[in-house]
Amino acid sequence: MPPYTKLPRPEGHIHFSYSPMSPPNWDIVDSNTHIFVYRDVKLALQAMLQATTTIQAQRLEAGTASLFTDHLFFRGQSDITQRLLPTRLRGPRREPMPRKRFRVDDPPKIMFGGQELPKHSFRGPPGEDPRDHYGDWYEEVEPIRVVEESAAELKSTELNERDARERAALERAVQIAEVERLDDFQKHAVVRHYSDAPSALLDVSTNPEVAAFFATGGGAQSPPADRIGMLWAIDLNVLDSLFSFEIASVPNGLKIKAREERDKWGVNKQMFEKWGIQPTCLELTFVALPFRRPLAQYARFFSLSGQDGAPLPPLLTELTWWSIIERVACGCAFVHDGRIYENPSRGITRAALLPNDEKLAIALA
């Protein structure tokens, strides 16, 4: 029998909505999702690990786990509204919009067919109070997330300027002998890790406590108490129904070629083709860097590219796949308490994760 786990009781949850017609991808990912919010980062970390390890055990039991190792990667973000996107594809920085908070046991009403009905209906497991499952309250993130609107914010001139900044950072980085000896992907990873230049790489960690450190402001100033942060767990096995996997070793890491099996997608095949979402062979490259700081952070660098490392054309295709990854990732949120998460017994401290005397950090700051 597949294992089962009971997650900790959340404080509340937050709704996110994605346009189901932008582009249409029904049966691949939901257009609505909710993220549980826990009282602190430690409880969110517990819930995320319970959920992800149980899901993997269920896949192993059912024989549906294509990847047995190197399938789970973590990331922490200080605000729940921040997108799961590489810096090259992020829109303008904005302060989160204020959100109204509603009670789970007394949601707002809407008129439908002449009747007043609850906008949301919450049902827990049979015989249980819905609040034990969903928490006492919920909030809604606005506006709805639309892929075309995300693409419209990324003008070609802005993308060209971001690419130029990365090239300039690369030129500085390769002046350092240890960097010059690396392959091209690792050189880009160095720039992503040590500089503020925009990058097409998403930096993640194989250690969830590293994600908790950065989610609570470890890389900068701790966010104000009562703001809501986010822990992400990206499980590549969720793409199993969409792709077939080929795994190859690369220096200091691995490359997973995920080849589309679009003919198995049913109506989604026609929908993707109608919207111009090009057939894609995602190359997921995860490498470690042989330097003190990224080794301490168990850092890996995650890219999406087409066949043989080519960019994913067009921009709409790239943003669509990042949106899908965001929606199938496991997210657990938490309420900031003004403190940075540290665990000295496991090397999770600012001094260990962000040493300020490393040559690369000084050169590329």
Describe the fold and architecture:
By secondary structure, the chain is of the alpha+beta class. It has one domain (12-99, 141-364). It is built from 12 helices and 14 strands. A 7-stranded mixed β-sheet has the order 3-9-14-2-1-7-4, with helices on both faces. A hairpin with a 2-residue loop joins strand 10 and strand 11 (253-260). Helix 4 (156-173) crosses helix 6. The protein is globular, with a radius of gyration of 21 Å. The termini are far apart.
Secondary-structure map with pairings?
Layout: E1 12-17, E2 32-38, H1 41-62, E3 72-77, E4 101-103, E5 109-112, E6 115-118, H2 130-134, E7 137-140, H3 147-152, H4 156-173, H5 177-180, H6 184-194, E8 202-205, H7 208-215, E9 228-235, E10 243-250, E11 253-260, H8 267-274, E12 281-287, H9 292-296, E13 299-302, H10 315-328, E14 330-335, H11 350-353, H12 359-364
Parallel strand pairs: 1-7, 2-14
Antiparallel strand pairs: 1-2, 3-9, 4-7, 5-6, 8-13, 9-14, 10-11, 11-12
Helix pairs in contact: 1-7, 4-6
* Order of H and E elements: EEHEEEEHEHHHHEHEEEHEHEHEHH
* Secondary structure tally, helices: 12
Largest sheet: 7 strands, mixed
Helix content: 25-40%
